[in-house]
Amino acid sequence: MNLIQSLSLGAVQGLTEFLPVSSSGHLALVNSLFKLPFDNLFFEVLLHLGTLFAVILYMHKKIWILLKGGIAELTEKKSGKKENLRYIGLVILGIVPAVIFAVLFDEAIEEAFSKLLYVGIFFLITSLMLYATKFFRGDSPLSFKSALAVGFAQVIALMPGISRSGTTISAGIFAGMKREDACDYSFFMAIPLIFGAFMKELINVKPVFEWVMAAGFLASLAFGYASVFFLYRILKSNRFYYFSYYLAAVGIFTVIRSIS
Hints:
Layout: H1 3-18, H2 23-34, H3 41-58, H4 60-75, H5 83-104, H6 106-113, H7 116-132, H8 144-156, H9 164-174, H10 179-204, H11 212-236, H12 242-259
Helix pairs in contact: 1-2, 1-3, 1-11, 2-7, 3-10, 3-11, 4-5, 5-8, 5-10, 7-12, 8-9, 9-10
């Protein structure tokens, strides 16, 4: 692997991990187009670590407030509303369905990643989902019902070409949540999920480090941070559905390439 390839893969991972366009689908497509060497599992681990640092860095204030508030509520003797603990519980609820499904159907998911046609079809499905958010407006807070809806939507996002952030944010919007609240909830769930994927890969790989991998890690972190920043700005402007146009084009291109 050379420096340009490492930077390219890091940038693709960082940009697409949090934008609603599917990092797994884009990495499969990029590898198909340019034959970039993405068979180094340790390098995958580093790229995931870069995006994990990116979202923690961007959301560190919200994370600190949530954790500090949750700890304070645990030590309180008075009964009453424990909003921070409730939110943490709903985050856990939201990630449980995806974890169970990933464990039970790991082989089927891996097989789907090997077929470019599936990636293209799932790109198109994500595109339709994102476009549908144009017609929904909500102002409801996170609830048990909306958390469950987002959690089961996250199961679909295990497929290549189905964006995790796009699916979970869309599901939150469909469930009546404010757009920024849906994005917050999606990213709070992303942190333990990315960390879990990182630990799983780290356990199963033999570390083989090359200095050019550091460039990929830094690119993943930098572009990951930029993508989170950009996504919040898009949500505030109510233009989230704009990503559907891009994914429709990419999906059609991917399908054509897979059958040509």
